[in-house]
């Protein structure tokens, strides 16, 4: 089963063929192994969030759970996070430091040919003349390519922290150039955010401040652009701008973020329903201003979302959903920090790269989530989920004794040597009687 996760990890380099989603398959074959085991603390909020999403979907549109398009678009949360649960049902004894280093080298090298072709056709600075001339790697969307390369940047830094080398620095720099050429500004921001996070010591106060500021800033931007005379529940909106990047920003400020805020204000506790953001809702029955039931709905499974994970979770799942998401990432980062410290101080560096990558990639994801719906995007999250899966399944590596170093047999001390019993004083046939005439 571990080979399935490794295969899925190496296939995350593309979404042209969505084969990297096979990371959940161990659950189908070994589901009974969930029972009788202990799990890290972050599994609690993740399990609660998954159950909450399932219940929300059953109440909003239960038929969508049987539709393939739902899992590709509105319900890609299940595709992105299922591999974490799969890591609870199998085990392996591989060296994850070497495995992740090999994956990083593979991902960078396989992108060199298309990147060289891109540079030959467009040049390094073509994105400033025409934003459409950006590097897409092996992904359909530029934001997907940027998110993947940002996660690879985090992996490269983690590999470098585990074992420093000039070759690794060269590969990290090349990965950074590829990320720059995607012109995915949210991905660049997320990748750059891990540098001050490392510089200032990866403290919990910094992490708490970062998460709080991202949520507050997202809500503030949505409130600032909210217009009272616009019907965000049903008003058709479109942007006409020759610059695609400017149009992309305009539609977020003027439509998507205020629409998400309107959803949240209708039902602030549990949201309007999972997958509801891109649907047409013609009627909403409100109960005391804290809970709403939508009706007369036109279901659409599309790529439309709030372009902000925090606002999207508030719109569809309310305060409860966002609290579970933030709790999961908080506990996951804490677990990875403790694991990296234990690996460095006690376990001779075993799995250090995996723990450090999880920590850095979570910070990167949280920052990127303020610009896109990155917390559920498979191109961004699957790498993290598969590494967590392999780390949960990891067991201590067996170290064989070298053949050229035989064990030295030390002689026993004199007081522990076996002393044979003294021979008998009389022959075996003696009776103890005195012979006559003696």
TrEMBL record:
It holds the Pfam family Wzy_C. Keywords: Membrane, Transmembrane, Transmembrane helix. The keyword Membrane applies. Residues 173-326 form the O-antigen ligase-related domain. This is O-antigen polymerase. PANTHER family: LIPOPOLYSACCHARIDE BIOSYNTHESIS PROTEIN PA4999-RELATED (PTHR37422:SF13), TEICHURONIC ACID BIOSYNTHESIS PROTEIN TUAE (PTHR37422). It is found in: Membrane. It is a multi-pass membrane protein. It comes from the Bacteria. Its main location: membrane. The chain crosses the membrane at residues 6-35, 42-60, 75-92, 99-120, 140-161, 168-199, 205-226, 310-330, 375-393. Residues 404-438 are annotated as: Disordered. GO terms for cellular component: membrane. It comes from Paraburkholderia phymatum (strain DSM 17167 / CIP 108236 / LMG 21445 / STM815) (Burkholderia phymatum).
């Amino acid at each position: 089963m571990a080979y399935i996760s490794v295969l899925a990890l190496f296939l995350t380099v593309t979404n042209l063929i969505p084969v990297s989603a096979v990371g959940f398959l161990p659950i189908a074959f070994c589901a009974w192994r969930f029972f009788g085991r202990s799990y890290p603390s972050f599994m609690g909020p993740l399990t609660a969030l998954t159950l909450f999403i399932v219940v929300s979907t059953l109440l909003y549109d239960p038929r969508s759970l049987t539709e393939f398009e739902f899992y590709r678009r509105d319900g890609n949360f299940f595709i992105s996070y299922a591999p974490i649960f799969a890591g609870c049902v199998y085990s392996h004894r591989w060296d994850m430091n070497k495995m992740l280093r090999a994956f990083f080298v593979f991902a960078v090298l396989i992108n060199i040919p298309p990147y060289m072709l891109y540079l030959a056709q467009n040049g390094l600075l073509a994105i400033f003349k025409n934003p459409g001339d950006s590097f897409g790697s092996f992904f359909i969307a530029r934001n997907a390519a940027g998110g993947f390369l940002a996660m690879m940047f985090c992996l490269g830094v983690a590999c470098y922290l585990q074992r420093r080398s000039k070759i690794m620095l060269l590969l990290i720099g090349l990965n950074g150039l590829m990320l720059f050429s995607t012109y995915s500004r949210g991905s660049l921001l997320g990748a750059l955010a891990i540098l001050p996070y490392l510089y200032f010591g990866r403290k919990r106060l910094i992490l708490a401040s970062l998460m709080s500021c991202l949520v507050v800033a997202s809500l503030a931007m949505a409130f600032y652009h909210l217009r009272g005379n616009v019907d965000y529940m049903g008003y058709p909106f479109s942007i006409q701008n020759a610059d695609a990047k400017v149009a992309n920003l305009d539609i977020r400020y003027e439509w998507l973020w205020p629409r998400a805020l309107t959803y949240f204000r209708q039902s602030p506790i549990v949201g309007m329903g999972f997958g509801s953001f891109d649907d047409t809702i013609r009627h909403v029955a409100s109960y005391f201003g804290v809970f709403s039931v939508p009706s007369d709905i036109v279901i659409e499974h599309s790529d439309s979302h709030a372009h902000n994970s925090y606002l999207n979770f508030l719109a569809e799942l309310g305060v409860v959903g966002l609290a579970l998401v933030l709790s999961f990432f908080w506990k996951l980062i804490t677990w990875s920090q403790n694991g990296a410290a234990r690996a460095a101080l006690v376990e001779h560096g075993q799995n250090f790269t995996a723990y450090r990558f999880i920590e850095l990639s979570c910070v990167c994801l949280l920052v990127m989530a303020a610009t896109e719906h990155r917390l559920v995007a498979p191109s961004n999250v699957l790498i993290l989920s598969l590494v967590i899966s392999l780390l949960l399944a990891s067991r201590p590596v067996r170290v064989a004794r070298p053949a050229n170093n035989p064990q030295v047999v030390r002689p026993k001390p004199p007081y522990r040597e076996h002393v044979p019993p003294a021979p008998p004083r009389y022959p075996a046939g003696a009776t103890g009687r005195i012979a006559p005439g003696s």
